[in-house]
Amino acid sequence: MCRDIYTCFAEIFADDREAVALWRKTAVEEQNHADQITLALKLRKGLSCHVEVDSSQIDFRIFQMQGYLEPVKISPPTLKEALALAIKLERKISSFHLDEMMVFEDESIKKLFSAMMASDQKHLESLEAAYKKLEDKA
Fold first, then answer.
1. 5: number of CA atoms within 13 Å, CB side?
2. How would DSSP label each residue in 80-104?
3. What pTM did the predictor assign?
4. Which of 3, 24, 81, 130 has its CA 20 to 30 A from that of 73?
5. Where are the domains of the chain?
6. Shortest CA distance to 101 belongs to which of 41, 48, 59, 47?
7. How distant is the alpha carbon of residue 75 from its chain centre?
8. Average pLDDT, 10 consecutive residues per value, the chain (138 residues)
């Protein structure tokens, strides 16, 4: 769902190459994050792990994220507002990072998924840096 919001932001700010690059990169990272979680959930029986969240928690987060997309489409935010919203969303969904959703018993599998998630951890920093850069210009 965050991917869809970030893709929408890329469309809204199509005239700003730097913003488009940030939103597209972040959207791809969100899709990668979702794919990694899906893969881990599919493989969980063979991975000696257990899931720390239940499906109702996941469904609730998806429902929450859906509530952000439509208002953005109806009333496009400024770039600063979009960045603030993205930072808020990233903080809100931080508990749904794979390393917090699943506990792997096999250390090598844990390291594999941690490595896959490493780049995902950095996009909040990218969003915060872009927000700070906008504030510094003002």
1. 25
2. HHHHHHHHHHHHHTGGGSHHHHEEE
3. 0.80
4. 130
5. 2-137
6. 41
7. 22
8. 92 97 93 79 70 70 78 95 93 66 75 69 88 89
